[in-house]
What does this fold into?
Amino acid sequence: MDGLQLALTNLTSPPVLAFALGLLATALRSDLKLPDAVYQALSIYLLLGIGIKGGVALSETSFDQIIAPLLGTIALGIVIPIIAFYLLRFTKLDIPNRGALAAHYGSTSLVTFTAGIVFLESLSLQVEGYVNTLLAVLEIPGIIIGLALAAKGVSRNISWGDSFREILTGKSIFLLVGGVVLGFLTGSAGYARIDDFFTGLFAGVLTLFLLELGMVAGRRIKDLKQAGVGLIVFGTTFPILAGSIGVLTGHLTGMSLAGAAALGILAGSASYIAAPAAVRLALPEASPGIYLSASLGITFPFNLTIGIPVMLAVSQFLEGVGL
It folds into this structure.
């Protein structure tokens, strides 16, 4: 399947169309809104479900199979925020805002990853189950590196204890890691009892979740004026660069074509759940209007519509050249 076909397949998927519907609802000033309790329940479902599936797969994966991808993922979590921080020198942003953005782009987007997995599975491409575990691993180091890079631009000491506590006990990390532990302990036999709930309903819950995110992103569009052209360029080009590095890492560490594409989707995504909470606490000097506009208003829609099929195309290319 060529690049155009991949893009069209992704654009016409229910989750992406639901996101577009949410954008339209905001543009038309519709009173459509998911109750906050429903939104929170959907996010808990997605986070816990992905964690449990990753844990089950991890329990069935030998150490030899996962060690290379795991080390590669940790390396990505260190390298990507450093690249982002120094590329942002070409914008007019100060060091705290560059560090905040590095933390967001070094971390990951659960929903981008989930939409990517649904897209790959719609093409009958099977991803290694332990990739869900790599999601939990990649979530943390990028935030830490971003905050460390920002530290030299502030005149006070960052409260690392509070920051680590916010990162590790925040909803996304807690549920992902907790789900991995649950899945690992219960194994495939235990998971079979809840498979219908976490597999059969997954795509539908994601569609509903993206409807709400479309409305949230639509409300952020007005903040793009504050972001500036340089940040818009960064938000649409850096995901391809970081994602391609992720795909290459996947191939070099022995992952399948689809698994490497999934790692690229992870590497090219930007956090808008875990990172904002940590950055808000550790870097009050950084502007939420900048880092949320970039991650949620620019990069998330770009990845959802274009970035995901591009990562598969890059993985197909690398597979063809023998990597």
